[in-house]
Amino acid sequence: MIGTDSPVLAVLCGDQHPPDMDSIERSATVRYTRADGLAEALRGADVLFVYDFLSTAVPDAWPAADRLRWVHIASAGVDPVMFPELRASDVVLTNSRGVFDSSIAEYVLGVVLAFAKDFAGSLRLQQECRWRHRETERIGGRTALVVGTGPIGRAIARLLRAAGMRVAGVGRRARDDDPDFGTVYPSERLTEHLPGADYVVAVAPLTEQTKGMFDSAAFAAMRPSARFVNVGRGELVVTEDLVAALRAGELAGAALDVFDTEPLPQDSPLWTMPNVLVSPHMSGDFVGWRNALVAVFADNFQRWRGGQPLRNVVDKTLGYVPSGR
């Protein structure tokens, strides 16, 4: 039975409750809520678990948070909860860094191979019952520029290197001796290094500095044979500029898992472009991912209860977890 001194945990979960919460329910008063009940659930709550990590309900409900000490979001990206009041508060913010690294890296390798081996073309021809021999590309020796050097970007770099690709990174700080990327270029010089890449992979966190970083100038800098892959945030890209660049032949294709508007509107031209692969924000979602997200929170919850340092503490001035934290 939960004692009177048990912490109060609000869980923003939408239509689906998180699994494997039994151990947490035994040591806390848990209030499960949808967005419309979040304000009420936050009154007197010590902790907020944003399980519905796509929800934008937290800023509006924030004034009701009269005792909150810690917010955890069930994703690597924290932009849905990076509003000014939370930034300015003493509330600790943590994320679920590490859960999706390998699965997103596998997705990126998969779409790189799909482009190089023209799997989409083979499927179309199969559906038309047409036998048409073609030559395809190799990925060995091709260059990938990974924009974003956090854990997901590093997992992508390691897997692409293992497949024989040459990889470089783009991040906040330039360096020449990175163990995963080799060379990391500074973000402010992105357009200088885009022309050398066969594949450009966007996995940067969404911040004021990265929002819209892939615009008409960036796409114009890419070689016409390059492919663009976005597994970061939809708002990293100016969608109209991407569509225009694809139509103008400024790049050869795009694989997009995230969009500035989700679900992707049915009238978006991206749906029907022959050189575009669309997936519904699922690059990281492997079988069992929900359980893995709860496991990360449960570990941190026990740490918080025991007065131990939390894992994955977000630097609220940067908008992500710095390396080594």
Automatic annotation (TrEMBL):
Protein name: Phosphoglycerate dehydrogenase
Domain D-isomer specific 2-hydroxyacid dehydrogenase NAD-binding: 110-283
UniProt xrefs under PANTHER family: 2-HACID_DH_C DOMAIN-CONTAINING PROTEIN, D-ISOMER SPECIFIC 2-HYDROXYACID DEHYDROGENASE NAD-BINDING DOMAIN-CONTAINING PROTEIN
GO MF entries: NAD binding; oxidoreductase activity, acting on the CH-OH group of donors, NAD or NADP as acceptor
Gene3D superfamilies to which the protein is assigned, alphabetical: NAD(P)-binding Rossmann-like Domain
CDD domains in the record: 2-Hacid_dh_1 (cd05300)
Family, similarity comment: Belongs to the D-isomer specific 2-hydroxyacid dehydrogenase family.
Keywords: NAD, Oxidoreductase
Superkingdom, taxonomy of origin: Bacteria
Domain D-isomer specific 2-hydroxyacid dehydrogenase catalytic: 17-314
